[in-house]
Amino acid sequence: MGLFEKIQETASFIQQQMTVKPKVGIILGSGLGGLIDNIETPLEINYSLIPNFPVSTVKGHGGKLVFGRLGGQDVMLMAGRFHYYEGYSMEEVTFPVRVMKMLGVETLILSNAAGGTNAGFNVGDIMIIKDHINLFPEHPLRGHNDERLGTRFPDMSQPYDHALIDLAKTISAETGINIRTGVYIGLQGPTYETPAEYKMLHTMGGDAVGMSTVPETIVARHGGMRVFAVSVITDMGITDVPVTITHEEVLEAANAAAPKMAKLVATLISRM
Ligand code: HPA
Q1: CA of 232 to the centre of ligand 1 (A)
Q2: What is the 3-state composition of the chain as percent helix, strand, coil, each rounded to the nearest 5?
Q3: What is the β-pairing status of strands 180-186 and 126-134?
Q4: Which residues pair with 25 in a beta bridge?
Q5: N or C: which end of the chain has fewer CB within 10 A?
Q6: Geometric angle at alpha carbon 25, from 19 and 29, rounded to 5°
Q7: Is the C-beta atom of 245 inside 6 A of ligand 1?
Q8: Is the entire prediction scored with pTM above 0.90?
């Protein structure tokens, strides 16, 4: 079965259970699952039940799709994403984005936990991603291009939708939720970066670094979706004294900032 047929099969399975027709899709990053509590009338489908969905590498953390309402709109949400460092192929990492597109999702909202490479940032900051640098070792669009999914050489002049970024800035001014905007650099991980790498990433023009989001954005843009993405800064590696970064601290900082991020995203959706 080709990729297109696999996407069709998965989409039609999901369609049979869907009671809403979401135009907005959300992918939640590490520690940011709290947003699910804001979903009204949720319907959940475990990834393990969905044909062609990648099989989770972590027992008990299989992840799920959630359908429901947020900010007055129908949404579909992925709680748990597939990371390249887990060993998934780029096709697997981005497969759910393809499925969302086929189900009618027009706007993709991505979130992640990220390390700050901008010395002016603080742990707990919310950064709206205005652009990215792709440092993954493999491109999600490498290989045969199916024109039904998108063009061979996609434009990347506006990976993140300017209108949505402006709207987020307006909401920030009105609500007092502080936001930064910046450039996200996507790396494969799973190691956090060395002090020298942090310095390099900063010099390259990065404000934050993480192990996700970039492949999903590329595939969403390939499919013609508009993208809004937000990082929660969970640690600051860009200091004179090397700081130890642990996954526990990353999750803790993400959890602490999750309500702020949830409010921003819900308000954004209500005004889209
Ligand atoms: N690098 C550094 N810090 C981080 C990351 C990362 O990929 N993700 C969350 N905090």
Answers
A1: 10
A2: 35, 25, 40
A3: parallel
A4: 76, 108
A5: N
A6: 125
A7: yes
A8: yes
Q: Which residues contact 58 (CB under 8 A, 6 or more apart)?
A: none
Asked if the bond preceding 190 is cis, omega within 30° of 0, the reply is yes
Which tokens belong to 22? 């979401």
Q: Position of tokens 């590498």?
A: 57
- Ligand 1 center to 164 CA (angstroms): 25
Rounded Cα distance between 238 and 50, Å, is 41
**Which residue's CA is the closest to the ligand 1 atom numbered 3?**
115
Domain 3-270 in CATH 3.90.1640.30? The answer is: no
* DSSP assignments along 170-212, one per residue: HHHHHH----EEEEEEE---SSPPPHHHHHHHHHHT-SEEESS
Residue nearest to atom 6 of ligand 1 (CA): 210
Q: Which of 85, 231, 245 to mutate to test the pocket of ligand 1 (most atoms within 8 A of CB)?
A: 245
pLDDT in tens, the chain (272 residues): 899 999 999 999 999 998 889 999 999 988 788 888 899 989 999 999 999 999 876 655 669 999 999 999 999 999 999 999 999 999 999 999 999 999 999 999 999 999 999 999 999 999 999 999 999 999 999 999 999 999 999 999 999 999 999 999 999 999 999 999 999 999 999 999 999 999 999 999 999 999 999 999 999 999 999 999 999 999 998 777 777 889 988 898 888 889 999 999 999 999 99
Residue count of the chain, please give it: 272
Q: Provide the residue type at 163 as one letter.
A: A
Question: Which atom of ligand 1 lies at the shortest distance from residue 211's CA?
Answer: 7
State if residue 214 touches ligand 1 by the CB under 6 angstroms criterion: no
